[in-house]
Description:
single chain; mainly beta; four-stranded antiparallel β-sheet; 17 strands; 45% strand
Amino acid sequence: AGSNYFDNLGFASLTVWNMKTWKPMTVLPLGEDPPAITSLCFNHNGKILAASAVDGMIHMFDMSAGLQITGWPAHDSSISSILFGPDETSIFSLGSDRKIFEWSLQNQGQILWSRDCSRFSYPLKGPQYCRHEMALDASGRRLLVTSSSVRAPIYQVQGHLNGWRTLPHGAPITAVDWHPTSPIFLTGSADNSVRVTSLS
Length: 200
């Protein structure tokens, strides 16, 4: 009772696999007894891998060298989702502390933008629900986040606009994504529906 799902995941192993041979190539170093990894994302050319963990840390790896190049504490609790900003000079993190941060990759540890999303992201309960995720539009100006409510918030990055929300579903919103070039987004819900919405 009172324990978090992520606290029970155990220790981490981060293995790089060869997709042609289906054999492991290398194991990226995470230190002794590392906590479980919760989210991964590559930069545009696959040379840098970002990994987040249940202890609130973000780790950055040089894939050609197979080494960790940096890491910093980003949240006070588990990180649910991370993604690179559009110009890859920043990285976004969404924590189970219900906070979103945009971190500078040029000045490690510097917060460029933040939002409290506790209004929408209380813990999802039940085995059919996933952890919270987020998606950034092609311009890098709008951030769409999954929701424990029937509507999901759309945040304006580097702005103060909080009032946008998606059209309602019949249950929590468990998946979100943006079209790669057009102002169109998708929301998937635990009610087994998917909505495609255009902002134009």
